[in-house]
Design goal:
- The protein contains 24 helices and 17 strands.
- The chain is α+β, with helices and mostly antiparallel strands.
- It has a six-stranded antiparallel sheet, covered by helices on one side. Strands 4-5-6-7-11-12 form a six-stranded antiparallel sheet. It has a five-stranded parallel sheet with strand order 15-14-13-16-17, with helices on one face.
- Strand 14, helix 8 and strand 15 (308-311) form a beta-alpha-beta unit.
- Helix 14 (416-422) crosses helix 23 (600-613) and helix 22 runs antiparallel to helix 23 (600-613).
- It is globular, with a radius of gyration of 24 Å.
- 50% of the residues are buried.
Length: 659
C-alpha cells in the first residue's frame, strides 16, 4: 500500500464500473485500519487508491481541468523536481506527490514521469483525448499487475485486486505456474495465475478509443566498455551518490519514524554508514538466531555508527504464543502450530504465493515494527547493482546465447522427476517445451551484448523485480520500504562501472573500506572475515568457503542443516510443522484443488518425502504448493474477496491507529 486499482472498459457505464471498482478496492483494503479510499468513476474508466496515510500523496485524484492523476508510492527526489519546475518558471508550493506529478505534467508535457525519481506507479487520464495511461517507474520497484480480458483492462498493486475486477474467472496454470515451480521464483512478467501479468519496469501503457499500446520509455544499460575513471574515482562517486540517495530516503523523517533493518551483510551496512549524522540516533532492527553472523555483526555495526540497536528475536516466543492464541480462537485449531502455520495466512494474503513464503516471515514482527517505524530503510537491490551475482564463467566473455543457456540451467533447478511427480501429465506436456521459449524471449528486451551487462540487466529486471521487490508488500500497509539503491542517480552511477570491476563487487568493497574506514574491522557475515580491496584475496576466500560448505553438505546426513548465512533453520522448522502439512493435505482433498494442473496423489507423496527426508528442493516445492493452496482458498473461491480474520494483521496485535 498505497494500493492502486484501475478498470478501463470502453463500453461500461459509470454505475456498473462503480460496483466493480468497489469490489477491487474491498479486495486490497484492510477495513480495520480505516484507510482513505479516494476514487474517480466515469464512463469507460474508474480508478481508486487505498492510502494508509504515511506518504505525502493524499491529494488524490490530482486534477487539472479534465485531466486527473492517481499515484501509487512516492517521489523521493522532490527537491530536484521542484528545482526543475522553478527553472521552468513554476514555483511549487505543494509538498503532495500527486499534485507535484500533475504540475510536472502541466509543465513538461507527456514525458513528465521521466523526471519523477522515486518508487511509484501512476494512472493518468487525459480528459481531452479519452486516453488513460498506466506508467511504472524505471525499475518497476512496486509490482503492478494487470489482466486484459476482451475489452476490459484491470490493474492493481496486488493480484487480488485484478482477480476481483476481471470479467472471467481466475485459475492457476499456464507457463507462469510451471516456471515458478521449476525455478522457485517468477521471471519476466507472467504469474502463476493464467492471464494475470506484471506491467514491465519503465513502461507506459496507453488505453483508449484506438486500443492499447505498450512502450518501454526506459531500459537498463550497463557499461560494456572500459573504465571512464579510476577505481578510486568510481568508489568516491559511489559513496557520494549513496549518501545523497540515503538522504532522499529520509523524506518526512520529521513527521514519521524511520528505522533501518540491519544485518551483517554489505547492503544494509552500506546504507547505515551513509546515513547523515543529523538523522542519528536512529533505530536499527535485527532478528535471527543470536549466534548467527548477521546478528553478531549487525550489533557491532550499530555501535560503530551510533544506531540504537534493537534485537527483537527475544520477543519471538511471546509473539508466537500470542499469534497462536489468536489463530486458535479464530479457527478452533487444536493441533500443534509451528512458526509458519500460525502466520501463513497473514504472509500469503500479502505475498499471494508469488515467491516462497518461508522467506517472508516478517509478519510475526509487525506489532513491533509498527511501534518503531513508518518508513523502513533497507539495502534491497544493492547486491544486484554492484555485481554480487556475476559468476566466474562470465569473465571469459561468453556469447549472448551461451549466457542464456547458462541461465536456463541455473535458474530452473528443480528436477524433471519432482515436477513430473506433482503435476498433471496433460498440463506438464502442454507447457514443458514452451517454458524455455518464453524464458529466452525475455532476453529480447535486453539491449546489451557483453555477458556481464546481459547478466546485470536480467538480474535487475527478473530476480530483483520478481523476488526482492515482492517482499516490499509485506509491511506496506503500515510502513513503506525505502532502498537507496533504487535511486535513479545512484543507479546511473553504478551502471557506469565496467563489468570486470563489478565482478566480486570490487568497487563496492573499495567504497566501503576507503570511505567508511570506521567500520572496516567489522566482518562481513557472508565470509565472516574483514572486507578487503584485494580482488585476488576476495575471490580466493570465496572459492575456499564454497568448497568447504559443499564438502560439509556432502558429509552431513542432516539435510535441513542451517547454512552459515541463514537467520534460522527454515527447512527444519517447516518440515516439522504438522499444521502446515495438514493444510496441504486438506487442499489436495478439497473441491477447489486444481486437478487440471496438479496431481493430488503426487503432491501428497512429495509432502511425505519432504517430511521424512527434508531436502532443499522438496522444501521449495512444498512451500510453493502450500502457498498456492492457501491463496486459492482465500482469493479464488468465487466469493467476494475480503481479508479473512486469520490474515488480518489487526487481529494479531498490529496497531490500527495513526501516530
Amino acid at each position: 500500500m498505497p494500493n492502486l486499482v484501475l478498470i478501463v472498459d470502453p463500453k461500461a457505464q459509470a454505475e456498473d464500473l462503480r460496483g466493480d471498482l468497489k469490489r477491487m478496492m474491498d479486495a486490497v483494503d484492510l477495513p480495520a485500519f480505516n484507510f482513505a479510499r479516494p476514487h474517480v468513476v466515469q464512463p469507460g474508466v474508474a480508478a481508486g487508491n487505498v492510502l494508509p496515510g504515511m506518504n505525502a500523496n493524499a491529494a488524490q485524484p490530482a486534477k487539472s481541468g479534465a485531466n486527473w492523476l492517481m499515484l501509487d508510492g512516492e517521489i523521493l527526489g522532490v527537491a530536484e523536481l521542484k528545482a526543475d519546475l522553478r527553472r521552468a518558471g513554476r514555483e511549487a508550493e505543494t509538498d503532495d506527490d500527486a499534485e507535484l506529478a500533475m504540475m510536472a505534467f502541466e509543465t513538461f508535457g507527456p514525458s513528465f514521469y521521466e523526471r519523477l525519481n522515486g518508487v511509484w506507479n501512476l494512472v493518468f487520464h487525459d480528459g481531452h483525448t479519452g486516453h488513460t495511461y498506466v506508467v511504472t517507474d524505471r525499475l518497476g520497484s512496486r509490482l503492478l499487475f494487470f489482466a486484459h480480458d476482451g475489452e476490459r483492462f484491470c490493474v492493481a498493486n496486488e493480484m487480488k485486486g485484478v482477480i476481483a475486477g476481471r470479467a472471467v474467472a481466475s485459475r492457476p496454470g499456464g507457463v507462469g505456474l510451471y516456471s515458478l515451480l521449476g525455478a522457485g521464483g517468477h521471471h519476466g512478467n507472467l504469474t502463476w495465475i493464467e492471464g494475470i501479468e506484471t506491467v514491465p519496469a519503465g513502461t507506459v501503457i496507453r488505453l483508449g478509443p484506438d486500443g492499447r499500446q505498450d512502450r518501454r520509455y526506459w531500459r537498463f544499460t550497463f557499461n560494456e566498455s572500459g573504465p571512464e575513471m579510476s577505481e578510486a574515482d568510481y568508489a568516491g562517486a559511489f559513496a557520494r551518490s549513496l549518501h545523497a540517495a540515503t538522504d532522499r530516503c529520509m523524506k518526512q523523517s520529521d513527521e514519521h519514524k524511520v528505522a533501518i533493518t540491519l544485518s551483517g551483510g554489505l547492503d544494509s551496512r552500506a546504507v547505515a554508514l551513509s546515513i547523515d549524522p543529523s538523522h542519528l540516533p536512529m533505530q536499527a532492527i535485527t532478528y535471527g538466531d543470536p549466534t548467527s553472523a548477521d546478528v553478531r555483526y549487525a550489533r557491532q555495526l550499530a555501535e560503530v555508527i551510533g544506531l540504537e540497536h534493537l534485537y527483537i528475536e527475544d520477543e519471538r516466543p511471546r509473539l508466537e504464543q500470542e499469534a497462536e492464541r489468536v489463530f486458535r480462537e479464530l479457527t478452533g485449531e487444536s493441533g500443534k502450530l509451528g512458526f509458519y502455520s500460525g502466520q501463513a495466512d497473514q504472509i500469503l494474503w500479502r505475498s499471494e504465493a508469488l515467491t516462497n513464503f518461508d522467506g517472508l516471515a516478517s509478519m510475526i514482527w509487525h506489532p513491533i515494527y509498527r511501534r518503531h517505524m513508518r518508513f523502513m530503510l533497507n539495502g534491497a537491490a544493492g547486491d544486484a547493482m554492484t555485481g554480487s551475482h556475476l559468476t566466474p564463467d562470465l569473465m571469459t566473455y561468453p556469447s549472448r546465447g551461451a549466457v542464456i543457456d547458462s541461465f536456463i540451467r541455473r535458474f530452473f533447478f528443480q528436477s524433471d522427476a519432482l515436477l513430473k511427480q506433482v503435476l498433471n501429465p496433460a498440463y506438464l506436456a502442454s507447457v514443458k517445451d514452451e517454458r524455455d521459449v518464453v524464458f529466452r524471449q525475455g532476453f529480447d528486451e535486453i539491449n546489451a551484448d557483453e555477458a556481464l551487462a546481459v547478466s546485470n540487466i536480467w538480474d535487475m529486471e527478473n530476480r530483483q523485480r520478481r523476488g526482492a521487490f515482492t517482499s516490499f508488500v509485506m509491511e506496506r500497509y503500515f510502513c513503506d520500504c525505502r532502498s537507496p539503491f533504487l535511486d535513479y542517480e545512484l543507479c546511473d552511477v553504478l551502471a557506469r562501472v565496467p563489468g570486470r570491476w563489478r565482478f566480486q563487487q570490487r568497487i563496492y568493497k573499495r567504497m566501503l573500506v576507503k570511505h567508511h574506514a570506521r567500520a572496516a574491522h567489522v566482518p562481513w557475515a557472508y565470509t565472516e572475515g574483514r572486507i578487503t580491496t584485494s580482488p585476488t584475496f576476495e575471490f580466493a576466500r570465496e572459492v575456499f568457503n564454497y568448497g568447504r560448505d559443499k564438502a560439509k553438505r556432502m558429509l552431513t546426513k542432516n539435510q535441513s542443516a542451517q547454512e552459515r548465512w541463514d537467520f534460522r533453520d527454515v527447512v527444519g522448522m517447516m518440515r516439522s510443522d504438522e499444521t502446515i502439512h495438514r493444510m496441504l493435505d486438506d487442499f489436495t482433498h478439497s473441491d477447489l484443488f486444481p486437478s487440471e494442473v496438479f496431481d493430488a496423489a503426487g503432491v501428497r507423496q512429495m509432502a511425505e518425502d519432504y517430511r521424512r527426508e527434508g531436502d532443499q528442493d522438496r522444501h521449495v516445492m512444498f512451500t510453493h504448493i502450500v502457498g498456492i493452496g492457501r491463496v486459492m482458498q482465500m482469493m479464488l473461491s468465487g466469493d467476494p474477496i475480503v481479508v479473512p480474520p486469520t490474515a488480518d494483521p489487526a487481529n494479531f496485535g498490529v496497531a490500527v491507529t495513526s501516530e
